[in-house]
């Protein structure tokens, strides 16, 4: 199997490209370490939504709905306030319609390429974001830490591994999500109508008009309940929904099935992510975002047990890590 890892260009931006057999992937170090492409070149599948050359300026201004953006800390915080260990950090209110802060500070800034390379069976790249005093992230989260993100491409597909290392002298919050943007259809000859999905959701959180959880659950509709077993279109209705995760058979995942191609895309995200967001751009066919998230939206402002809402604290010297995979399975038509 041919493997390659090299520095190149994606739509005019610096990229690190990985190849392994029929698979190809690209990551953008200078735009949040976004894994902007994951492809099966033999079958011409493009699993992630990629910006065209004409879309690049809009993408750079808002790099959220293409590829796999890293959100740290993820989603919304009421009035931009982030209470932590007796202090309150003030984030910028960047979503005026809700009066909240949205999506954190690491998805649109440069990361360092630590290394990339190959062996006979895989290609890989590791990127790091080292936050110290004077760093743009430190302005809002005054802790010393390193985010380290590795992508590995091999015959089985794409593996992602992320870690957070607290290198400071006090406990820090560790809250991560991905605004993963999946194409539906991802096959060139398929239509959105050929696609159904399954997702390991549990309960649906009730959300306020400001898109903040009330702390209560709301009943699942009969169609939402089908998400747990599959067979539901990812565009069955407009979704901007927040759920707990409910792993099945020890795994936490989304499966997207293309009935025409007889193939299933599996997004296995690991069980550290206790929440799902799902957004489908107002049920507009073409792509949707199954977003694994460690924490409840607005978690630091919610008076609930930390374990229940995924409010993770890292003590000095501690490391948190998790792995995820994107791969395909052939199924009988």
TrEMBL record:
Q: Which domain of life is it from?
A: Bacteria
Q: Coiled-coil segments, which residues?
A: none
What InterPro entries does UniProt report for this protein, alphabetically? Answer: Aldose_1/G6P_1-epimerase, Gal_mutarotase_sf_dom, GH-type_carb-bd
A family per Pfam: Aldose_epim
Question: Matching CDD domains, A to Z?
Answer: Aldose_epim
- By what name is this protein known? Aldose 1-epimerase
Supply the source organism's classification.
Bacteria, Bacillati, Bacillota, Bacilli, Bacillales
